[in-house]
């Protein structure tokens, strides 16, 4: 059995968990689309990146109106907004400038990567599965707490960040674009 590492491993994990892919483009005329969601921006959209295990959501795109993910009642700003879904307790999505940037899964969310990693996994399990993650100190918790983050990502690539708690286990898994992976306090 071969073991992938670095960006190739992360890409393989994310591709293996994509439950929904946009339909292929066709030459047939497009049918009229539903009205754009409130989160839609007037600027051109970056490339679509489907989110693992979350059908209908894509990084760099607005969260679809009428879907399972709803804007939280209290927001810090109009530029950066958080969303939650009942199907994923202890999880949230970050939307910046109307485009989905990151989804965070916490303990009790039921989320699991195809390689078995999930909130509650040990740091050793994460490092064995993804040895090229970059470690950095946790902003608020004492060592051995830390962040293990995808390195060498292109600006439009999807990466991973594992938040390791002081007990040496994963407290949260962040999946998103590089510009938002390191947002420690979400939109704050």
Distance between the termini: 43 Å
String of helices and strands: HEEEEEEHEEEEH
CATH class descriptor name: Mainly Beta
Which fold name fills CATH's third level, the topology?
A: protein yfey like fold
Helix fraction bin: 10-25%
Helix count, per DSSP?
A: 3
Most strands sheet: 8 strands, antiparallel
Strand arrangement within the widest β-sheet reads 3-4-5-6-10-9-8-7
How many β-strand runs?
A: 10
Write the CATH architecture name: Sandwich
Q: How big is the Rg?
A: 17 Å
Protein name: Lipoprotein
Organism: Novosphingobium aerophilum
Structure description:
The longest helix is centred in the first third of the chain and has 11 residues, at 6-16. 12% of the residues lie in helices and 24% in strands. The chain is α+β, with helices and mostly antiparallel strands and 188 residues long. It has 3 helices and 10 strands; from the N terminus they run H-E-E-E-E-E-E-H-E-E-E-E-H. The chain has one domain: protein yfey like fold. Strand 5 (91-96) and strand 6 form a beta hairpin. The strands form 2 sheets. The protein has an 8-stranded antiparallel sheet.
């Amino acid at each position: 059995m071969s073991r992938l590492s670095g960006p190739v491993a992360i890409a393989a994990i994310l591709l293996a968990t994509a439950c929904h892919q946009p339909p292929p483009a066709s030459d047939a005329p497009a049918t009229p689309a539903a009205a754009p969601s409130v989160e839609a921006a007037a600027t051109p959209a970056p490339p679509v990146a489907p989110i693992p295990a979350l059908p209908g959501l894509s990084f760099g795109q607005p969260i679809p109106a009428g879907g399972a993910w709803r804007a939280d009642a209290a927001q810090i700003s109009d530029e950066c907004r958080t969303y939650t879904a009942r199907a994923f307790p202890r999880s949230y999505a970050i939307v910046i400038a109307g485009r989905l940037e990151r989804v965070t899964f916490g303990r009790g969310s039921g989320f699991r990567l195809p390689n078995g990693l999930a909130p509650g996994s040990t740091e050793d399990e994460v490092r064995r599965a993804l040895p090229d993650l970059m470690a950095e100190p946790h902003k608020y918790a004492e060592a051995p707490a830390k962040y293990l983050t995808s390195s060498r990502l292109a600006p439009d690539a999807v990466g991973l960040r594992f938040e390791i708690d002081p007990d040496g286990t994963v407290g949260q898994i962040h999946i998103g674009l590089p510009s938002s992976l390191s947002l420690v306090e979400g939109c704050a």
